[in-house]
Automatic annotation (TrEMBL):
It comes from Sphingomonas sanxanigenens DSM 19645 = NX02. InterPro entries: Resolv_N, Resolvase-like_N_sf. This is Resolvase/invertase-type recombinase catalytic domain-containing protein. Residues 1-63 form the Resolvase/invertase-type recombinase catalytic domain. One of its GO terms (molecular function) is DNA binding.
Length: 63
């Protein structure tokens, strides 16, 4: 299973995960397995990243 993670630092409209989403979908990640956060990379409380913590065995996480 392919799992995709996307993140942007800013919550304003200048940054978007759209290009990251397109690249992950093109790489074969199913839309149901895409996770994202709009938060600083220095923060630990990122729900999208935490959702990737325990992937099924044999999974590949793409960022």
């Amino acid at each position: 299973m392919l799992i995709g993670y996307m993140r942007v630092s800013s919550v304003d409209d200048r940054q978007s995960v759209d290009l990251q989403r397109d690249a992950l979908l093109a790489a074969g990640v199913d839309e149901r397995h895409l996770y994202s956060d709009k938060a600083s990379g220095a923060r630990d409380d990122r729900p999208g990243l935490k959702a990737c913590d325990l992937p099924p065995e044999g999974s590949l996480i793409l960022m």
